[in-house]
Amino acid sequence: MKCIKVPRRELGRIRIRVAPGYQIIFDGDFALIPVLEPQQGYEAVECSPAPKETTPKLRDLIPNVSSFYVIGDIMVLSPKKEIIKAELEKLLKLRRGVRSIYIRKRVSGELRINELEHVAGEKRTVTEFREGGLRFIVDIAKVYVNPSMATERLRLVKSIPEGSRVLDVFTGYGALAIHVARKIGYVVAGDLNLDGLYMARESLRLNSCRISMDLVQYDARYLPFREKSFDWVIGDNPTMINVFLQELCRVSRKFTVVYRLGALEEGWERVNDYSKDLVIAKRVIRCQDKDVY
């Protein structure tokens, strides 16, 4: 096989595509770059590069896992069938940043709490992770955490102009609210889940002292705010949003952003695929429109 021989100190400045599946060889003061064809202006030499090491995919290691996500140093699996727990020790060795592994049985109750089974590593559910430059502390056994919505949260934050008065109705551990508050300076956030509000408070302390946020515990069927108190009202509760929509509209004077789990319909924007026939979709509502309800 051919390699391009270049001074090692110049490697960072040279733009040569490495042959797929192979690693660069380092030989004293020189680097040998495996290539599929000669590169004009560079010295080509014979070489025997080692194959590039690849990380096995999760489905190859554990075939019955349909999906997974990592929160901090905790991995949460959603298996299709029963998993042999001894196989999960492979994951702890493969993913060095993972210290605990749980199986998610289901999400239940009005607080949307994960029913979890510990299967490998340390038996704890509290962890810290980063999202969009912010730090969050969560207990995955006491609050719903959905890392797959991170991109959507950051995109929504960009659409909210500074100077807006914002209510994050189902804040959980403050995932969206703290991002919004960092941009516009102040936000009101609430939830029925008191544990989640304590986590939001701790996460707020981990970040900037310039971020201001009021945290309120309430039942979202009866929001403790006057009519049309907020420019933006955000309701991220996909399985029950229809129950609360009228109350969200009561306190909104401009825009109400809601998320729903179901089939994709006209007027709704796909955010995440949930299963073969179900998606999490978003709609931005002006509550005075006649077709809202």
From TrEMBL:
Q: Drop me one GO molecular function for this one.
A: tRNA methyltransferase activity
User: Does the keyword ATP-binding belong to this entry?
Assistant: no
- Which biological process, per GO, is one annotated for this protein? tRNA N1-guanine methylation
* Ranges of residues in domain SAM-dependent methyltransferase TRM5/TYW2-type: 59-293
**What InterPro entries does this protein map onto?**
MeTrfase_TRM5/TYW2, SAM-dependent_MTases_sf, TRM5-TYW2-like_MTfase
Q: Which domain of life, per UniProt?
A: Archaea
| An example Gene Ontology CC term for this record | cytoplasm
Q: Is Methyltransferase among this UniProt entry's keywords?
A: yes
Which SUPFAM superfamilies has this protein been placed in? S-adenosyl-L-methionine-dependent methyltransferases (SSF53335)
Pfam (any one): TRM5-TYW2_MTfase
Q: Which UniProt keywords apply?
A: Cytoplasm, Methyltransferase, S-adenosyl-L-methionine, Transferase, tRNA processing
Q: What is this protein called?
A: Methyltransferase domain-containing protein
